[in-house]
Amino acid sequence: MGFKKVFSRPHSLKDAPFHYCPGCGHSIIHRLVAEVIDEMGIQEKTIGVPPAGCAVLAYNYFDVDMGEAPHGRGAAVATGLKRVLPDRMVFTYQGDGDIAAIGTAETIHAANRGERITVLFINNGVYGMTGGQMAPTTILGQETTTTPGGREQVRDGFPLNLSEMLALTKGSAYIERTAVTNPKNIMRTKKAIEKAFRVQMEGLGFSLVEILSPCPTNLKLRPADAWKWVEEKMVEIFPLGVIKAAKKG
Question: Domains in the chain and their CATH numbers?
Answer without folding.
Answer: 26-244 (3.40.50.970)
